[in-house]
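Support request, please re-run this one:
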Amino acid sequence: MLKRSILFVAALMLLTACSNDRNPLNTDDYYVHIYKYDGSIQCEFIGYTVEQMKVQLTMSMIRIVDCYKSSDGMDYPAVCGYITGRINVYVIPRNRLDDALDLGFQVLPGD
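Re-run finished. Output below.
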């Protein structure tokens, strides 16, 4: 019984020693957040929805993991005809980033 316990502990230690701290499913490793301004103009145009803009990526066969509306974080004066700073954000596989950049998307700062 003691021999079996020692073997179990030794095997467990070997497995633990061989693991690395990086999670293979970590989205930071495999996915990137990209964005494009939605084109909204105060008092004039509400901008393109996430779904409307999504077509640009799907037509290029870029898989979208997640998408949402956000802001560029800047303050803009409340003036008709001025931009709003709203952006459409998409999470895509990192290996398709160059294709998305060719379509005019940008990497979300901090990603």
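The helical segments are 2-18, 27-30, 50-59, 97-102. Confidence is low (pLDDT under 50) at residues 7-24.
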